Amino acid sequence: MLSATELPPSRLADNFFLARQPILNRGQRLVGYELLFRDAHTASTAEFRDDASATATVIAHASELGMELVVGDQLAFVNVDEVGLMSDFIRFLPHDKVILEILETVEATPAVLERVRELKRAGFRFALDDVIGETVDVQKLQPLCDVIKVDIKQMKPGTLAALTKVLKNPKQKLLAEKVETVEEFHQCMDLGFEYFQGYYFARPVILSGKKISPSQRSVLHLLDLIDTDASSHEIESMVKHDALITLNLLRLVNTPAVGTRYRINSVGHALMVLGRRQLRRWLQILLYVKSGGAHEFTSPLLQLATTRGKTIELLVEHTRPGQRTSADIGFTVGVMSLMDTLFSIHMQELLDSVNVLDEVRTALLERAGDYGMLLSLIENIERGRDTVALGQMLEQIAVRPAELYAIQLAAIEWVTEYSRGF
Questions:
Q1: With the C-alpha atoms ordered 93, 96, 99, 100, is the resulting torsion angle positive or negative?
Q2: Which residues does 363 contact at the CB level (< 8 Å), separation at least 6?
């Protein structure tokens, strides 16, 4: 597995931030990521590179690093302008892993239409990006596309339903982008959209009187036992009292991710092999896993929480070499940052029920302190918006964009590998 320092300098995106924006289906499972590369030079010069440069950067780095590393088992949605579409380097992308997003700036000229047909014959799939109306270009390109992306934020009030009726086609899927609230998600669901892009799923919806489930409470209690340095006997006894935790623990330790040579059948042996540091980490992740599903790790909330945790951990390791405890705290902050959404209760109420360090509490409630700043940095990266602010934050923690990029890739790979243990 890659570490954040193992990528040679020539392979790093020296001047770009990488954002992966999740795309979900109607069942709230991950189906893909849109890959967005933002120019880090904007931190000092406020200049943007053209679409062709950004497209070439995405293609070059994604193909060099391997698409499976960047998006795991999901699809990658990659923006292409006319220059990128007509270029030869587009064939470096694996056609079975990507959907090419035709930007709204592309005109449906005869040459463009023929090029799209040619790439479709080669196995590529297409999405039409940022549709807000039925223009001539949309009418010409739509029959060639597999996904139609509607920018619901740019729509005039009251026009979304009418446009949806016009665009609906059994041979294509409608994708609503920039979905930021649960209300917007439900509206798009009712209109028949099949894919959704935005961070509505990560926003806490507080339910009055909501209680943490017994199994989740057991996990929280186990975390308390570890943090208070309880005896191994107490921890083993607690694990054995919850069949779900026991089952998942035995599944985990008998996977290649843990690296054991022999089959482990007892809770005591499993706990000894795993160790307390890994046990804590696994329990934090287990909170996000719902029982009974065959594809538990396609939960977008779980993917986001674990990626946040590992990214912050690696950032701390990079900025504070040798401080393993601090790195573990960073992982905890990242994973816990979405637990109010998971439990549908206020973060304050959640933190009152568990034993956490003051610096973790401050980071989660106020985005303050060293860990709070790192969490804010990660949240900004996810959305890929204000690259000037991102550059300033990186300067504060003395991390270069290339180092951040390597850390992101290492975190993504770790999450992909770790998921196989669930």
A1: positive
A2: 333, 369, 371, 372, 374, 375
Tokens of 308: 């946040």
Answer positive or negative: Cα dihedral of 244, 273, 322, 225.
Answer: positive
For Cα atoms 377, 326, 307, give the angle at the middle one, nearest 5 degrees.
Answer: 45
pLDDT for 200-244, tens place per residue? 999 988 887 787 877 788 888 899 899 888 999 999 998 888 877
**CA 269 to chain CA centroid, nearest Å:** 33
Q: What is the pTM of this model?
A: 0.87
**pLDDT tens by residue, 370-394:** 999 999 999 998 887 677 788 888 9
The Cα 15–Cα 222 span in angstroms is 43
> Which of 145, 165, 146, 164 lies closest to 155, judged by CA?
164
Q: Are 268 and 236 in contact (CB under 8 A)?
A: yes
Going from the C-alpha of 93 to that of each of 2, 55, 176, 405, the distances in angstroms are: 22, 12, 25, 20
Report the alpha-carbon distance of residue 273 to residue 292 in Å, rounded: 25
pLDDT at 70 over 80: no
* Residues facing 76 on adjacent strands: 33, 98
Distance from the first to the final alpha carbon of the chain: 18
Q: What is the pLDDT of residue 242?
A: 80
Give the separation between CA 243 and CA 18, rounded to whole angstroms. 40
Alpha helices in 142-213 (DSSP H): 160-167, 182-191
DSSP state of 265: -
Number of other CB atoms surrounding residue 37 within 10 Å: 26
Instruction: Please give the Cα distance from 189 to 186 (Å, whole number).
Output: 5
Q: Which two tokens stand for residue 182?
A: 């649960």
Structure-derived torsion over alpha carbons of residues 402, 406, 411, 416, reported in degrees to the nearest 10: 130
Cα-Cα-Cα-Cα torsion 206, 22, 179, 296, nearest 10 degrees, comes to -40
Average pLDDT, the chain: 84
Q: Which residue has the tokens 């243990």?
A: 421
Cα separations (Å) of 147 from 129, 162, 180, 298, 355?
9, 18, 20, 21, 46
**Which residues have C-beta within 8 Å of that of residue 394, sequence separation ≥ 6?**
43, 377, 400, 401, 404
